[in-house]
Amino acid sequence: MKKIGLLLIAMVFFQSCDLDNQVSSLDTMQTYLIATPLKSNLVTFKEEAVAIADPVPIIESGKIYAYKNYVFVNDVYRGFHILDNTNPSSPQNIGFIKLEGNNDISIKDDRLYADSYGDLVIMDISDIENIKFAKRMENAIYQEFWCTVGFDVAWPEADAFDYSDFDASRDALTGWEVNEVRMSTADFESKYGSTRTDVFLANDSAAETNVPTSSTTGQGGSFARFKIVSDYLYAVEPWSINVFDISDLDNPKVLEEVYAQGNIETIFNQGDILFLGGTQGMYIYDISSPDKPTYVSEFTHGRACDPVVVSGDYAFVTLRSSNFCGDDIESGLYIVDVSDLTNPTLSKTYPMTEPYGLGIKEEKLFICDGPDGLKVYDKTDINNLVQLNHFEDINTYDVIPLSNSLLMIGEKVLYQYEYLDNEIRLLSAFDLN
């Protein structure tokens, strides 16, 4: 009888332990949001990513580029709009080049070079009404993974991203599917890590010189990442400079990539010197041997978005610390003395609201201060900038100072201004919608 009683007690004890284990196991089960890529064939996707079309409304205005009597306006990640700017007082929208994954272009002798999901695309624009697709050089600019990412595809809220069935050599990302998956914490941590898996995309902002290298080379704003100097095209990406020999315009040669000293956003040249703006500083490179940029020095600052232009002995840098750009530095204009290229030093700072692009025309300095409008200064004395104009109530992004007029892109609007002796005057405001 005593043995039966002990057996019953033992059975109850072990059943209780099993129940505790089951409850403990249930406590570790959770519902996670897992995102998996929607994809299409990469070859087909890229073939369909280029098309010439009639004018269409812009969705998100990006960078601008001027060539001859034309202005090209980037529609972020979708392509670029072509405007006939023969009459700056009344520009005409004449077409749209669909080029998915595009942010930047640069033009020399009627050959247009553009990025598309990390590929380098070349077009013949000698007949603007009959633009011809010439060549696509795959993976010439970015690492292969980023080449296949659809940058215009919104990133979903998810606890993890599952790429196990995604092959970057054959697949193009066209969207996401998010499913609720119930699994134990241990299984989730084993498969995806102990914390939420986020995908980080670097900001694509960068700069190009606002002085064309020749009459046959176009002119970009301070947020371009492409720059043509003589027979070479430089295309910056985070942490490196891609170099192309374009002496044969239709058959560029991909040269050795140069790894930079920091996370690069912008590029500007003054003669044989490149000034690269980055998230933590401005970096100076010598291109007297144009096939291999050589590091000279750097000017460091707190984390911020950083386009840069240079005039004479001074570099003019706008630092914006809002949003993802950073929060450990005051937004403003920073003027750096670069008379000694090996030792750039800060000369003067001016507070700004939320500065973006900037440009220089002789002694006039133009600053796009985001929602605080376009500001124009006389920079004769860098220690005492004199404000000449302030165009308020417009959202400003970037400028290109042309020989006879100023181009400025805002939110889906292309503005053009006439230079006057001590100020500028609005010529036109072209709505791209």
Describe, in plain words, how this protein is organized in 3D.
The protein has about 425 residues and is mainly β. The chain has a single domain, classed as 7 Propeller (Methylamine Dehydrogenase, Chain H). The protein is built from four helices and 34 strands. Strands 2-6-5-4-3-13 form a six-stranded antiparallel β-sheet, with no helix packed on it. Strands 14, 15, 16, 17 and 18 form a five-stranded antiparallel β-sheet that branches. Strand 14 (about 225-230) and strand 15 (about 230-235) form a beta hairpin. The termini are far apart. About 40% of the residues are buried. The model is unreliable at about 1-15, about 20-25, about 145-150 and about 195-215 (pLDDT under 50). This is LVIVD repeat-containing protein. It comes from Maribacter algarum (ex Zhang et al. 2020).
CA distance, first residue to last residue = 92 Å
Number of helices in the DSSP assignment: 4
Give the strand line-up of the largest sheet: 2-6-5-4-3-13
| Residue fraction in strands | over 45%
Return the structural class: mainly beta
Domain module count? 1
**Could you tell me the mean pLDDT?**
83
- Shape, please? globular
Rg from alpha-carbon coordinates: 27 Å
In the predicted model, the low-confidence regions spanning at least 5 consecutive residues are 1-17, 19-26, 143-152, 194-215
**Text of the CATH class:** Mainly Beta
Q: What name is given to the CATH topology? A: Methylamine Dehydrogenase, Chain H
- Can you count the beta strands? 34
Query: Architecture in CATH?
Result: 7 Propeller
By CATH, the superfamily comes out as YVTN repeat-like/Quinoprotein amine dehydrogenase
